[in-house]
Amino acid sequence: MYILENKQTGAQFGAKSFYTKSEFKTVGAAKAAMTRYEKEFGPNPYGRIVFKKDDYKITAWEDYVEPKVTITYNNKYDGSGPYTDSIGINSVGTCTDPRTETYWSM
Fold first, then answer.
1. Which pLDDT tens digits describe the chain residue by residue (106 residues)?
2. What b/e sequence results for 62-96 when a residue is b if at least 16 CB atoms lie within 10 Å of its CB, and e otherwise?
3. Cis peptide before 98 (omega within 30 of 0)
4. Number of domains comprising the chain
5. Helix, strand, coil shares of the chain as percentages rounded to 5?
6. What is the pTM of this model?
7. Residue 86 belongs to domain spanning
8. Which of 24, 26, 34, 78 is the most exposed place for a label (fewest CB within 10 A)?
9. d(CA 84, CA 82)
């Protein structure tokens, strides 16, 4: 399996989305996806994400090391905290991020 990794941040493209494919069986499939994504997510006036082929590289899944981000948050229910935790960069803003309501309601 191969992924598209951001050269600057180390984040995986499409990891937080259900409608964008983020894992590919071959290098050729990943290259084709880069071409498709560059056309689909081109410059726009609406503030959507922009995908540029030069900003990403193809990485084998077994070689990928997800960068960690240190976050500070308060407990959503009783307001206790602040707590400091380290989570993967691809988990920021998802249900595994302790700063989200979804995390505390699971």
1. 999 999 999 999 887 776 778 899 999 999 999 999 999 888 888 888 889 999 999 999 999 999 999 988 887 677 777 888 899 998 888 888 888 888 878 7
2. eeeeeeebebebeeeeeeeeeeeeebbebbeeeee
3. no
4. 2
5. 25, 25, 50
6. 0.77
7. 68-105
8. 78
9. 7
